[in-house]
Amino acid sequence: MTVLALDAGEAVAAGAGAAEAVCEHCGLPAASGRRFCCSGCAAAFETIQSLGLGSFYERCIAERPPRPERSDHYDLTRFITARADGTKELILAIDGLRCGACVWLIESVLGREPSVQTGRVNMTSRRLKLVWHGPADEADRLAGRIEALGYRLVPFDPAALAAARDDTDRALIRALAVAGFAAINVMLMSIGVWAGDASGLLNDMGPATRELLQYVSALIALPAVAYAGQPFFRSAVAVLRHGRTNMDVPVSIGAVLVTGISLAQTLSHGRHTYFEAAVMLLFFLLIGRVLDHRARGHVRATAELLLTLRTSDVTVLAPDGTVARRSVRVLSPGDRVLVGMGERIGADGVVESGASSVDTSLVTGESLPVTVAAGAAVFAGTMNLGAPLTVRVTAAEDGTLLAECARLIEASEARRSRFVVLADRVARRYAPAVHLTAAATFVGWYVWGGATVAQALLTASAVLIITCPCALALAVPAVQVIATSRLFRSGILLKSGTALERLAAIDTVVFDKTGTLTEPSLALVGDGVDALALRDAASLAAHSRHPLARALIAACPNVPAADQAEEHPGLGVAADGMWLGSAAFVGVGSGGVGEGRERVLALPRHPRVEPGDLCQDGAGIDPRVEPGDDAGRVGGRVPPSAICADNEAPRPDFSDRPELWLSRLDAAPVRFTFAERPRFDAAETIARLRAMGLRVRLLSGDRAGSVARVAAAVGIDDWRAECSPVDKVALLRQMGGRVLMVGDGLNDGPCLAEAYVSASPATAADISQTLADAVFQGAGLGAIADLVATARRARGLMRGNIALSVVYNLLMVPLAVAGMVTPWLAAAAMSASSLLVIGNSFRARA
Amino acid sequence: MTVILWLIGASLLLGGCGLAVFLWSLRTGQYDDLDGAANRILFDQDPKR
Fold first, then answer.
1. Shortest CA distance to A64 belongs to which of A98, A95, A18, A15?
2. For a tag site, which of A141, A182, A619, A666 has the least CB within 10 Å?
3. Tens of pLDDT along A634-662?
């Protein structure tokens, strides 16, 4: 995309010549005298203007769209479904949607494509549904149009989408609609009966009219209870079958009994019916159920979207030397995969050729890159920091780290006892008590009170209605919904329904180091770096997605991207007279600095890569570049003292650190080194957790030296280094108590499954995110302290709610047992207690 | 009092219509993208399709 855009961009930029310092497309800084920060933005601007959609820029109410970048190329044809009418359909996840203007822009651009039948963005789930006529490869062109505007698209697998489709939400809302309709209409009849009945206010309704209204009520209520009660009935039957009980059991019994007794009353010309109570009970409870399900569904969808946006295809090298992009899922053992600089290794395998350094922090927790050469084993999820590697895919064999982790996780998950939520613990005691009271009331009135069976039954049903666990069943879910959505807004995804209650009970927090206490990406070392060199380097780095380039930009943000720079994937970035990349790429050779400078001066504009190699197959990776010799030089052969931009004293592990070199025509080459850095609020968060009375510990797979350094920096005195996944699980068990495990790596997976409750950052390995009960986004660690604080507050509110409902029952049950509760009093008391509980729950928002 | 029969019938019919329309709107996916719907009201010209 970027390559194609070059000409248009230059034309626009040259034609305008205005001295704008801000890019007109993305709003980021641009070089003075330029309208755009990069050619991608210029092309996007041109596209938008030529389609007559210029008003997009006035519509933007949030941030501007992202800067168009060279994006991963996907084989979209695999994800296309053919529809019955001959059109084809594709569903893509969109990254970069800022506000409604982006939706408008994407739909308008697609709307101007003659082949497109439907192009519709779902802003809630961040998906684009594309339906078009014509060949399957039209998808690539259409997706390219959108990507050129700066949005990143990742295809969804239709099979996975169908499997994940959730119909429960709609079923619940349908039940809610039916219950609401019935509640309104039955209440309409009931108020008539209460007002006109002999025991009511006006006292002038004849029995015929009353019975008519009762029959109509029955006609509405019976099917409504049968339909809207199903979610509760099903759940109640399921738990009863397992010999347990939950809140749905008393709800179901209450609703069915009350409806049945009211029907019997209607048929036997009785005066009191409770149809409205039964329907209203279901209506209230369904509101809670729908909200709960929505909140959790939204969280789950967001977590899935985050994972989808991280997936990437791998470059498969066929035996005949051709390359193709494939999904990781279709790889089989024996396939050869090319992994460029800055790419994640997609599958476990053995390095066949090439030598490089690999960032294994997500797998082993080690912060320093590991040097790999032919024959070395590499794991899925690790990142290639150096030269391109050819990896032969192997199946996950027994004895590998991966197989061991998988086994540990399985064992821990099986062991994890089923947590009984607060509401169910209450229900276990509550349900028998309620049913015994109702039975005792019936027996008491019939045997000793001298009442007829019908009268005694009616009093007993009044007890059932008053004790119907409406408020009690809302007590926990209402708090949960409000607390979950509050956390969601601050970027914390609570995946498990019981996580909140478990979090409130923890006594220890165990952190992993790499990627959890420290930032997930490396940071530039040293403050003494020449500012001008850093600016130049950052302007080149803006053209690359390599993690080290990203770290440079983070160290020097708001620098306009260099003009006409090109990324040489796996090597570096080159622009007019400037090179940024590995030592070999910029020409700093093994022979020392002087020779390197000369080589830089003698180099052609595109060192080592023929121009024709660049646009090959869109894959952006040139299989013909022999990676061997430059990778060998990333490391210790350059005397660092001579030209080092790093002002720290050289350390033993100094040369292990990842590095980038900047070479300019008129200056000495500059070396940038990178290291891990604790998250900015790590120390503060740990102090907060301590203040909450929690023990804080650190378990890391990394070397003792770097663990000690980080532990000291963030203020943890209880740490263990060089732990294997087995050690970590063993230590966790040894600790006992209720542990919150926070980790991101594959090696933390067993611990995340073993711990009482677990959390991982959104940058964590896929498996860790799947296992964790909570996933937090953002650069800070403060989310952990917020999580615990919110959970504790929520637990307090849940207990308060339960206490409220118990007090209400204690007040009303004696009245019901005494036979003093009429239907209208029951309905009013039920609504009042439910509203009180819901109102109290809203305090969880604070 | 026969008027009450008509009134009950009419109120149930109207309520039933409301319920049917709601269920229809639910089935046609009109509640799937509430954020998008809130923003779409500001689009002054419809995309071509």
1. A98
2. A666
3. 333 333 333 333 333 333 334 456 778 88
pLDDT digits (tens, 9 = 90+) for A832-846: 888 888 888 888 876
DSSP A126-138: TEEEEEESS-TTH
Across the interface, whether the CB atoms of B43 and A181 are under 8 A apart is answered no
- Of the candidates A749, A766, A793, which is a domain's last residue? A793
Q: What token pair was written down for A51?
A: 């389609």
Of A117, A188, A189, the CB nearest to B49: A117
> Would you state the pLDDT for residue A7?
38
pLDDT at A440: 93
Indicate if A210 and A251 belong to the same structural domain: yes
The total number of structural domains that make up chain A:
5
- Is A72 a catalytic site residue? no
B42 interfaces chain A, CB cutoff of 8 Å: yes
**Subunit contact B34:A122, Cβ cutoff 8 A:** no
3-state percent breakdown (helix, strand, coil) of chain B, nearest 5: 65, 0, 35
- The answer on A175 and A107 residing in a single domain is no
User: Is A184 close to B15, i.e. CB distance below 8 A?
Assistant: yes
Residue at A615 is within a domain: yes
The residue of chain B nearest to residue A173, with distances taken between CA atoms, is: B26
| pLDDT tops 50 at residue A620 | no
Domain ranges, residue A116: 76-164
Neighbouring C-alpha atoms within 13 Å toward the C-beta of B11: 16
Q: What pLDDT, on the 0 to 100 scale, is given for residue A596?
A: 35
With a cut of 50, say whether residue A626 has pLDDT above it: no
Mean pLDDT of B8-20: 92
Do the chains contact at B33 and A122, CB–CB below 8 Å? yes
A190 shares contact with chain B (CB less than 8 Å): no
Touching check for A279 and chain B: CB below 8 Å?
Answer: no
- Kindly report the average pLDDT of chain A as a whole number: 78
Q: In whole angstroms, what is the distance from residue A466 CA to residue A460 CA?
A: 10
Contact B39 A108 (CB under 8 A): no
- DSSP letter, residue A649: P
Is A311 inside any structural domain?
no
Burial zone of B24 (CB within 10 Å; 0-12 exposed, 13-18 middle, 19+ buried): exposed
Q: Which of A241, A267, A296 is the last residue of a domain?
A: A296
- Whole-structure pTM over 0.95, yes or no? no
| Average pLDDT score over residue span A126-152 | 86
Contacts A111 to B, Cβ<8 Å: 47-49
- Whether the CB of B48 is below 8 Å from some CB of chain A: the reply is yes
Residue A15 maps to a domain: yes
pLDDT at A163: 65
Are residues A143 and A13 located together in one domain of the fold? no
Tokens of A724: 């294997």
